[in-house]
């Protein structure tokens, strides 16, 4: 349901509530959408739910400020609706624990009542003199642009917005007498007035009159040749909407490696930027590979001085030349085959003679 559909330009341009002295009222262009009393109960703007007025006092909430000056509609500065709707109070407060219990379209909500209510798929909420919204079966009359409502098994007609319809008392049905108010017809049956909102390809002429003088809003299409009810014949041909399939071309999508294949198959004069990038990358890779291959044939340098120094360090001194370094400890003779762990002497064999050694002061010779 479009918010404010058919409510007029004042619904957008003017304030949602009008303050007359100390009394705040709802103007005609805001009826069915706004409210001015927190105890008031009516119907949601979609006319599907029973709802209460969500007027609140911001002074009773912690860490909350009053509505801004331009959004104050009451003498008490802290009163207002929700911030999302410019602090305008609307019928959006649930007065039961489960909101689905207030849905007129739910047949399970049909219980014992005293106002002849009917819950079902085609039921609509109506303001009632009983103090809250009431649910009744409804139907939109397309040829006559009327709203039909079934009350006490009898169909009645809503000829215009906010028309009053009496609900007579019925002792057999335990129905009490009340008065219901017809909702805004453009809210309950929006397609009766400029179908589909002229599909966005025209404007709705709400002042149009039929031959008999009755108001019958119609679409004025932007395309003068479009005479359809909802301007549906003048579709914008912008690529998404087409007249026939002649404009559908099977253009192949360029794949990732297509520019690489073009390097080997196409003339360089026909290469695109991507192909030149691939060719440059291949040239760099080729040069790097050639550099690696050539580096394996390069001669390796030998460090002769360092090798000679190492050979001198490990050269065995000859007889008669002094040994470098401190004297080594005396070594014993190598163990012979006769020396074993099992021999009782635990020493070398008696038949083995040590070789003679001569010793000088600070020098050892073999």
Work out the strand percent: 15-25%
In terms of per-residue confidence, which ranges show pLDDT below 50 for 5 or more consecutive residues? 336-343
Secondary structural class: alpha+beta
Main sheet: strands, sense, barrel: 6 strands, antiparallel
Distance, first to last CA: 119 Å
Query: Over the alpha carbons, how many angstroms does the gyration radius reach?
Result: 52 Å
Task: Write down how many β-strands occur, each being a DSSP E stretch of 2 or more residues.
Answer: 17
Give the name of the CATH architecture of the domain at 10-96. Ribbon
Which term fits the overall shape? elongated
Q: What is the H-and-E element order?
A: HEEEEEEEEEEEEEHEEHHHEE
How would you portray this structure in words?
The protein has helices at about 10-15, 185-190, 260-265, 275-295, 305-315, and strands at about 20, 25, 40-45, 50-55, 55, 80, 90-95, 125-130, 135-140, 145-150, 155-160, 165, 180, 200-205, 220, 360, 365. The protein has about 375 residues and is an alpha+beta fold. Among the domains are: about 10-95, Leishmanolysin, domain 3; about 100-185, Leishmanolysin domain 4 (Leishmanolysin, domain 4); about 195-240, no CATH class. Strands 11-10-9-8-13-12 form a six-stranded antiparallel beta sheet, with no helix packed on it. Strands 3-4-7 form a three-stranded antiparallel beta sheet, with no helix packed on it. Helix 3 packs across helix 4 (about 275-295). Mean pLDDT is about 80; it is low at about 335-345.
